[in-house]
Write a structure and sequence with these properties.
single chain, 270 residues, mainly alpha, 2 domains, 13 helices
C-alpha cells in the first residue's frame, strides 16, 4: 500500500507541474492551451492508462522496480510529448528525431520491461484483452513485428506524411501512436522472446538496425531538404546522424543482451 500511495503522490505532483508550468515552456500543454484538441486527447489517453495501471496495482501489486519503471516511462512520455521538445520538433528536424527516438527506443522498451499487463488485466480483463490481444499475437513473431514497425518508421519520414503530421495535430497524435504501439510490439517480441525464438529476435534486431541506419544515412548525406525550405538542411543531416549512430545503440545493446542470455541458457543445458 505504501508503494501505491507513493505512486499516486508522484502522479499528483506531475499533474501539478504540467498544469501550472508557463505556456512558453510547455507550448502543447493540454491544460493551459485548450485549443489543442488533439493534444488534449493524447494527454487524456496517457493519463487514463497511467491511472488505470495505478488502480490495477491495488488489486495485484507489482514488484517495486516494475512500478517505478512504469512511472518513469509515463513521466518521460509527458515531457517528451507535451514539453518544450515537442515545440522544437515543429521546426527542427533534429529535435523531431530525438522525440521519435525517445518514444521508440526508450519509452517503449521501458514499458515492456515494466510488464504492466497483469495490472491492466486485473482492472478489467475483457477490455485489456480486446486492446492487447492483437499486439500480443503480433509479438509472437519477431520479424513480423520488426517489419510493421519499420514500415511505420519509413512511412512517417516520407515528406508528405512528415509535413502532414506537423501541420495537423490529429495526424501528429496518430503518428506518435503508430511509433509507440508498433515499437511496443517489437520490443515485446524481442526482449520477451523464448529461447527457441532467440535467433528470430536477433534477426529482427539486425534488420531494424540496418534499415534505420540506412534511413539515417539517407537523411545525413542528402544535399537537399526533404521537408521544405522552412526546415534547414543542417537540422535534417543532424537528425539523420542521430538516427544512424545513437539510434542504433539500443538495438545493438539488446542484441548483445539476447546473445548473452542465449549463451548462458545453452551452457546451463549442456
Amino acid at each position: 500500500m505504501r508503494l501505491i500511495c507513493s505512486t499516486l503522490t508522484l502522479r499528483s505532483f506531475l499533474l501539478c507541474v504540467v498544469a501550472f508550468c508557463p505556456t512558453q515552456a510547455f507550448a502543447h500543454n493540454p491544460i493551459t492551451d485548450p485549443t489543442q484538441s488533439a493534444t488534449v486527447a493524447g494527454a487524456l489517453m496517457l493519463l487514463a492508462l497511467w491511472l488505470a495501471y495505478g488502480w490495477g496495482c491495488l488489486k495485484l501489486r507489482p514488484a517495486r522496480h516494475r512500478c517505478w519503471l512504469f512511472n518513469a516511462a509515463a513521466i518521460l512520455s509527458v515531457f517528451t510529448l507535451f514539453g518544450p521538445l515537442d515545440e522544437w520538433a515543429e521546426t527542427n528536424a533534429a529535435a523531431h528525431m530525438v522525440q521519435h527516438m525517445i518514444m521508440m527506443v526508450v519509452i517503449a522498451p521501458m514499458w515492456v520491461v515494466a510488464r504492466p499487463l497483469p495490472q491492466l488485466y486485473a482492472l478489467n480483463a475483457p477490455i485489456a484483452s480486446a486492446l492487447c490481444a492483437p499486439l500480443l499475437l503480433l509479438a509472437r513473431h519477431s520479424m513480423a513485428a520488426a517489419v510493421i514497425h519499420g514500415a511505420f518508421i519509413w512511412l512517417w519520414h516520407t515528406p508528405k506524411l512528415y509535413i502532414l503530421a506537423l501541420d495537423n495535430l490529429w495526424w501528429h497524435l496518430f503518428e506518435h501512436l503508430c511509433f509507440l504501439v508498433s515499437a511496443g510490439a517489437f520490443w515485446w517480441a524481442v526482449l520477451r522472446s523464448q529461447q527457441r525464438n532467440t535467433p528470430a529476435a536477433l534477426l529482427a534486431l539486425l534488420f531494424t538496425l540496418m534499415h534505420t541506419g540506412f534511413l539515417g544515412a539517407l537523411l545525413t548525406f542528402s544535399q537537399t531538404s526533404w521537408y521544405g525550405a522552412a526546415r534547414p538542411l543542417e537540422y535534417q543531416q543532424l537528425a539523420g546522424l542521430l538516427m544512424w549512430v545513437l539510434g542504433g545503440l539500443p538495438y545493438f545493446t539488446a542484441a548483445l543482451w539476447l546473445g548473452w542470455r542465449w549463451f548462458n541458457r545453452v551452457g546451463d543445458k549442456s
